[in-house]
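Support request, please re-run this one:
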Amino acid sequence: MSGHYPRLAVVTGADSGMGKATAHILADEGFDVGITFHTDESGAQETKAEVEQRGQRCFVARQELASPDAAAAVDELIGQLGGIGVLVNNAGTGTSDAVVDMSYESWREVLAADLDGPFLCAQRAARIMIDADSGGRIINVTSVHEHVPRLGSGAYCAAKAGLGMFGKVLALELAPYGITVVSVAPGEIATPMTGAEESRAYSQDRPGNPIGRPGHVNEVASVIAFLASPRSSYVTATSWLVDGGLTAMAAHGHDKADASWREL
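Re-run finished. Output below.
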């Protein structure tokens, strides 16, 4: 095992938001990138063009993350790239239903997309990395809700917590091969999925967050890029919170409408 994994990355769900920003910064750092999308092909093609403008190759594949064949898109992209050094499991979904009202179908849809799909992609990438004998990085994008619960998000929280622990087990199993596995757990980030405009990340008021605003996609992508790099070689089996201190506020009422939580 050489530990010199290739600068070839696959980023799922890179048609917008954090996935798109991650593809950009990895390209800036010299990676060729394969990206997946579910429905927004035009967004994915835009990401592809932006990666190519940075002087790197980019390939696009449609992915049905909730399908037992979710890893087929990863296979396709690895074939086009000519290998893989980094997998970023970014794509996912969520619902807003009380547990007592949630249908089994809705529960399974979230678990399949947010846990089963990343498992299949990570398994496939890990097998190829092991065969290549050059190490690698697997980065699972979870959420602060890997660590703290949220009303109305039973399936999402269960999937993200499960993905976090799955990653830790995988990290132990893959360590002998020079492959690290980590989670990145974002808080509220201004993305299409959260209904917030990326351009307003620095101007929206969030009094209950210590930093006082939502995060920008580049602030998450920058952490992912570090963890994808050789600079993170001693980091594995852990979860990196990128939340402006939000989870530290769990006992203080982070949803308060003002900053009274700062008063002792």
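Residues 204 and 213 are 6 Å apart (CA to CA). The two ends are 54 Å apart (CA to CA).
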